[in-house]
Structure formats: C-alpha cells, structure tokens
Amino acid sequence: MKQGFLEQESKRVNEAARKTLFRLFFAYVCIIAVLYFLLKDSFDLSDPSSREVLFYLVIGSGIMLLAVIVGFFKTRRAVTNGKNLIIPYGENTKEAVAELIDQEASEGKIQVEEYIYEFAEGKKPHGEKIVLTPSYLLLCGNKNKITVIPRDKIYWIVAQVGQKGGSFRVQLLIFTEKKIFNMVGVDIEHVVGIADKIYQYIPNVFSDYDPFILSYELEEVFAKDRAEFLKFYESEKMKMNK
Description:
Elements: H1 5-39, H2 48-74, E1 85-86, H3 94-106, E2 112-115, E3 129-132, E4 136-140, E5 146-150, E6 154-163, E7 166-176, E8 180-185, H4 188-199, H5 211-224, H6 226-241
Transmembrane segments: 21-39, 54-73
Keywords: Membrane, Transmembrane, Transmembrane helix
C-alpha cells in the first residue's frame, strides 16, 4: 500500500533516530575499547577500587545497550493515522487532519517544503522541516512530532535575525492566534529564504517595516498586550488590502 506524506515523514524521522542511536553506541564502544587497552594492565580485580570502576563500567554499558534497544524498538514502525500530530487549535480529530494533509500532498499541492538547516549538494537533508499546504503549516520536529497550524490562524511569519546572547542565530517566528511558534536555524540567508517562499502564499502584512526591529517589538507586544498587537495587525492588513 502506498505510504501517505505523514507516514513517509515519520519513517524519515525514525531512520534518522536509528542512525543517531547507532552512532552513539558505536562511539561508546570505541571509547570503552580504548579505555580497556589503556588501562588493562592497571586493573587488579583483587583491588576494591578496580572492582568498583569495573562495576560502574558494566552498569553504564548495560544502560547504554538498554537505551539503544528501546530506541530501536520505538522507531521500528512509522506512525500512522496522525497519531504524532500536535493540533493546538483542536479544529478536528488527528485522523481527519492527517487525511486532509495526505490528500493535499498526494495531489501535489505542497507549496513550501524546506529543512530549517541548509545542506551541501549531495548530502541527505535531515532534522526539522517546515511544510506549507493549502490548509496547514506543518512544523516537523526531530522527535516524530508534527505541530499543525491552520492557515487562518497565522498572523505573521518572519525570519528573526539575531537573539539575545547570540547575534548570529536566526529563527523563524510564526505569530498565531494562540502563541508564537519558532524554529531555530543557523544559516541566516537560508531561513530568510524560507520566509520569502512562504510570503508567496501567506502575505507579509508587515512588509513595510524592518523585520529585525519589528520582530522583537511585536514579540514583546504580543506577550504583554494581545489586543494591542491585534489592533496593529488589523490596521496593517487593511492597508495591504486597499
């Protein structure tokens, strides 16, 4: 049976998680092997301190092995029927929302599909992804969870360059009816490019303003006085529609 878009996304995240688990386990085994060859001559099982070190190594190895087994077990199957969806607005059941998303994807209606990180040509992308369909904006996370935001609940999307304590970071802010969602990247030009692609389908209501300054100002207004934010938003929306 053909896999739907969301099931494929779940499979992609599971594969990435398994690779990460394998790499961590392999690194752990390598470290233990190096320690063994470096310290094997100094170990004396008749010495209580040596036995204690060995005990903790065995416990640590057991925990690591158990974590890998559990991780592989949890990622053995792709999530289906929208069970991994987060629907903050509760406009419908997870199954119904998943069905609509899969239908739009199968009809070739995905408008934007971008990873938050930029990858060199030929390198397989992975990690967080943002997807725009005619009905929803999807924030696809690393833990097989997808936040689904209805298009009509979105006020503004902006690439906010620079943060307190990190001037070279960039994040994509999504101002919505309930809260501000965000996805953090590292390549400024790439994240700005994602915002520009989305503006083709969700107009930038605040296009006349400097996004660097306005994003911080509106973040503060949104948190302190939602009514004031909505008043400003509606006035700018009216100007755009004239």
